[in-house]
Amino acid sequence: MAPWVIKVPRHTWRDGAVMGTLVLASYVGQAYGLEFISSNRSAFLTSLNVLMVPLLGWAWGARPDRVVFAAAALACLGIGLMSYDGGAHLLADTTTVLGALAYAAYVLLLSGRSRLHVPIQLATAQMFCMALMGSVWMVAAGGWDRTATLPQRMDGELLAGLLYLGVVASAAMFFLQAVAQRHVSAEKSAVIYAMEPVFAALFAWVWLAETMTLRALVGAVIVVVAVVLGELKPAVSPRESAPS
């Protein structure tokens, strides 16, 4: 993202810093929770952001269509069938839900502000703010000596994973979201994002030869139905989705 840094205007840095903080909080909340709970339970709790988006929008004065509320609730039900497996842990569950809340706030803010920025510049601002905060946190948590030896402790597999997570799962995701949410409301975006576990199950089947249980298959179908339902009627416009 470095080639676009010098072209990022001040107002984009301001919004990018706020959005980057929200995304980093969601990542950290989920990562901490995964130390104590299963990935399936984490996926279910994280999926609650689908329902949090219209609820937060409603609390901030927006008026989402009732169909979008129904679709969000239906999507949560479907993801629950796909992911939920018990194994509660109060602190881990709480941090994961707070991470989901931070991401819901991010989706709302992005829908409300994305039209004010050039997508690639907004993505760049978010990435650099997250990288700066993450680097400071890494040094503070691990100490300078441990951080300084990090390059020597990396191998090819780790570098490949970091490259994918940085380029595809972060930079490309921020850019595509900034482009798409100029035209799609926050509520509809959240329901569409509920397709994530469906794609995860598909890739697991193709690459890892994993199979889905009947319950998971029913949940995947419900998620798809929720996405279609969320597109049937127009929801609140992106300009009304978040406070300015």
What does this protein structure show overall?
This protein has 244 residues and is mainly α. It has one domain (10-240). The protein contains ten helices and no strands. Helix 3 packs antiparallel against helix 8. It is globular and about 50 Å long. 40% of the residues are buried. The model is unreliable at 235-244 (pLDDT under 50).
Measure the end-to-end span.
27 Å
* Major β-sheet profile: none
User: What is the count of helical runs?
Assistant: 10
Q: What is the average of the pLDDT values?
A: 81
Shape: globular
| Overall radius of gyration | 19 Å
Quaternary structure classification? single chain
Give the low-confidence spans. Answer: 235-244
Strand count: 0
Percentage of β-strand residues: under 5%
Number of spatially distinct domains:
1
| Global structural class | mainly alpha
Q: Helix and strand string, N-terminal first?
A: HHHHHHHHHH
Helix content: over 70%
